[in-house]
Amino acid sequence: MEASSPALEFRDVTKRFGEVTVLTDFGFRVAEGETVTLIGPSGSGKTTVLRLAMMLERPDAGDVLAFSESLVCDADGRPLGTRQQRERARLLGMVFQQYNLFPHMTVRENISLALRTVLRLGAEESDARTVEHVAMVGLDGKLDDYPLQLSGGQQQRIALARALALRPRILLLDEITSALDPELVGEVLDLVRTVTSGADITTLIVTHEMQFARRISDRIVMMADGGIVEVGPPEQLFTDPRSERTRTFLRRVLEH
After folding, report:
1. Which own/partner pairs from 82-87 qualify as long-range (CB within 8 Å, at least 24 positions apart)?
2. Which of 1, 85, 157, 176 has CB 3.0 to 4.6 Å from 137, enough for a Cys bridge?
3. How many domains in the chain?
4. Residue-wise pLDDT tens digits, 73-88
């Protein structure tokens, strides 16, 4: 799949926070329609990769592109203006570790607000799309509930519905089960697998759930120390990793 036109591309990206360099000359491509999972120890730069793609951070060097358009600068090399950022941000949607739902708004209001402010949809269209996507995640009976009336798993389902309702071409998922009780992890991961497999969407995932990564991914990227250790299809990487660093990481995670 990598040989096809890239949906998302990182070109020699370096990112620092103060004196700490999180990514060094990071280069990687995600093909259109591909599902790629980033794995590796904490602090290896996985979440930073997603935040750069979502334009929540700027690289100190290099470029990030979505469908051949820079998410960093315009054609003249100048930083993107607010309007350009908004236009290009519509290509991507992200679901975070925390649900980021407004507690004073109902499920319906949380999703329709995003549709009205980001896509400028009218009230009728935004409500129809809200109803459609809440039903997609199996919570159509919860439209008028508030987030605190929902379980953690239900809140994460709503966060996923909100992201998908914006109809992004690239979906970014950052440790979306880390805040959930263990018994809720499976239901959310099964839902992600269902909705992404049936959609024409490119997906980049950060997770510590190795079995989920193995089941859902076209390729897995092992990261450590701000760079890529190895890349491969799930079966190869899990059964016969080339790097000792990968073998050590997988052994520790799977034993845990």
Report:
1. 85/55, 86/118
2. 157
3. 1
4. 988 889 888 888 888 8
